[in-house]
Amino acid sequence: MLKKPIFFNLFEMNNRTGDSHGLWRHPDSRHHEYNDINFWVTIARKIEEGGFTALFLGDFFGASDVYKGSPETAIRYAMQFPSNDPSLLIPSMAQATTSLGFATTISTTYEHPFHVARRLSTLDHLTNGRIGLNVVTSYIASTARYFGLSEPIAHDRRYAIADEFLSVCYKLWEASWEDGAVKFDVANNIHIDPARVHDISHQGDVFKVAGPHVCEPSPQRTPVIFQAGSSKAGRDFAARHAECVFVQGRTLAAVKENIASIRKRAVDFGRDPGDILMFHQQTAIVAPTRAEAREQFEEYARYRSAESALAQYCGSSGYDLAALDPDSVLTYTATEANQSRAAQYTTQSDRSFRVQEVIDDVGRFGAGILVGTPVDIADRLESIVDETGLDGFNLNSIVTPTTIFEFVDQVMPELRNRGRIAERRSTFRETLFGQGRSHAENASRLAR
Amino acid sequence: MLKKPIFFNLFEMNNRTGDSHGLWRHPDSRHHEYNDINFWVTIARKIEEGGFTALFLGDFFGASDVYKGSPETAIRYAMQFPSNDPSLLIPSMAQATTSLGFATTISTTYEHPFHVARRLSTLDHLTNGRIGLNVVTSYIASTARYFGLSEPIAHDRRYAIADEFLSVCYKLWEASWEDGAVKFDVANNIHIDPARVHDISHQGDVFKVAGPHVCEPSPQRTPVIFQAGSSKAGRDFAARHAECVFVQGRTLAAVKENIASIRKRAVDFGRDPGDILMFHQQTAIVAPTRAEAREQFEEYARYRSAESALAQYCGSSGYDLAALDPDSVLTYTATEANQSRAAQYTTQSDRSFRVQEVIDDVGRFGAGILVGTPVDIADRLESIVDETGLDGFNLNSIVTPTTIFEFVDQVMPELRNRGRIAERRSTFRETLFGQGRSHAENASRLAR
């Protein structure tokens, strides 16, 4: 029986420390070279050679200021601060590669769909159809304050905006220009056929956009849509729009349950559940022997900054754990779970935790990190996929680029030997869904 | 006596036809390859080798729909439609060059200063301090309709918004991060010194932005500010903010008068008038002999589309010339002159024109185009500079890349022999204002 191929994305951020707490002090870490485009080009080339599917650029802006009521900790450890624009890294990396995909992150709460549709069309053109779009709704208060709001917009309202935002984008991408509109007819002096370019005339609750789209159709038209929502509104949004979901879950059982829930909702929305691919974040430390891998793990653990991790957790959960009695109990509810870390708890049966337990858990290095030989890691990745129904992983780096290079050099060849590496095709959507499937059927349907 | 060096920028747009009407049909034109990043990299390398100062990316979005009350003409001739995002072209071109500057265009009416400040900081980092920002206020009705407005915002209000917009950006770029904030102090576990990163706490009429800036200081902090306003509010804005002005004027006398007017206003705002450099658009057709240059001109003229030029003129002036009696008279007034083409007339004593005169003038190929041998063109450029006090030119292309390559290969060596080529330095601002002047003193002052 042919084994299901596994998709690997590298998760990265355009900042000083990546997604790694305290490891910037490790002598091998080069993430602070993020302003040198060659840093990114080197990584993109390496993961393309290694068989990765895509480079996924997360984004976060605002200085997390919930922990101790101040942004001081986040700033001190450069915890996702500063944070540069991710999209601008893509054209150079695309130029240096041939079939690697690139996903970038956009906030539907603080951008306008006109600009986003235009930027993504431009990127899809420049990359020849290798673009994905990660849709986020920006729930952080310190982000809201950049835009004149003292409080973030309420959760369900953000998703309602996001829904209309994507609807506008789909109309621009899918419904404004017919195929064949660009004639380039020198003899008859017709460059573009005006009869095939249409206003979208969108009149919604949030946006009014006349159109037509200012970009001609790009190879994929609509970028591959990524989403990571875990609340009810978030899962509904994913089921309606996403082609790739960044699934949450602290246990494999929880991941499996979330996958089933999203696929079920997708069917409710008239979609084929197989048209949504499921990704989970994964970190791995690999070495030729288990002893070396363990040693590497212990070394990294010594650089780990628990306080940096706490600043992030408090910022995203909204709870200042430093201000609470360590023996008090935190209870997570589904409606509060509008962000990733806290949401990971909601899928477990026990939703209450002592504050000290949470602090210890957040500060600890190692939860979910795979440590071992190439064979160990490959075994474990295969079993995770087989157990949960996941389609792939977003690999998180610990020390950049070391973690990435070691994974590419040691784990990917092992997975390749096992027939588990997904083949890349010319567009990102074809790589994910098969030759000839460049076009986003779901977006096209929702644009009507 | 040392001759004043002349700065040359190439004016370009990320679209199918550049700024050229009908020339897309010429067999040498390759502008429709705009979605291939190599098209841009080749041009950037060529003009860097040739001694240009910068590549200037204009921008326009919306389908011009005033002419005949429809966007049909603009679409048919691909007249600045489609129009892709210009900023995304810059990182790859910067990677392929070492000291060429890059200016991009941003609308302060339809973007938020947070996003713009972040994007420009990212670009200034990625280019190592080679970024300029062309500020426009987007007066076109078809653009307004992408953002839910049936009418564009009134002219003076747009400039008031632009003024506060730049004020927010200056605070983020100049006042949020002190020098030395990035410590990268491994021993003491301090990556960034929180005491040196400040909120901007901007509370204005239009924007409320708490800060701090999410980007660390880039080599120039504030990009070199370009502006092209020609109305009274526009000239005031330029005098207050601009470091480079795109001066209007149909005659050299008008150009000279506009330069004097802006420099005078700059003094009123407490600036050194020499801190503003003046650029004028220029097109040239060069060949080894005058006969060949003339032949080239005639050939290009045969491809010229008068109707495409009319669609642009009507879109920007707001007058549908096709709907007016050709014998009626158009009178331009300063308050109406909130855009470039019509504004060119306001500096002349006679402000009234027969409609047919305007139609003929707009449709004609050749106004202001220099045609001749390298010596002819160099002579004329030198005399224009000496006569008007201009500091440089924005070169417009006719057939891309032919026009550019011929200018670089033939005119630039001639100007170099005459000691007229400005030397490039490592940052864009140093190239324009001298070694050691990377920092924007005006922005820094206005940020306080």
TrEMBL record, chains A, B:
InterPro entries: Diverse_substr_monoxygenases, Luciferase-like_dom, Luciferase-like_sf, NTA_MOA. Gene3D superfamilies: Luciferase-like domain (3.20.20.30). Belongs to the NtaA/SnaA/DszA monooxygenase family. One of its GO terms (molecular function) is oxidoreductase activity, acting on paired donors, with incorporation or reduction of molecular oxygen. FMN binds at D59, T105, H155, Y159, S230, S231. It holds the Pfam family Bac_luciferase. Residues 26-391 form the Luciferase-like domain. This is LLM class flavin-dependent oxidoreductase. Keywords: Flavoprotein, FMN, Monooxygenase, Oxidoreductase. The keyword Oxidoreductase applies. The lineage of its organism: Bacteria, Pseudomonadati, Pseudomonadota, Alphaproteobacteria, Hyphomicrobiales. It comes from Phyllobacterium sophorae. The keyword Oxidoreductase applies.
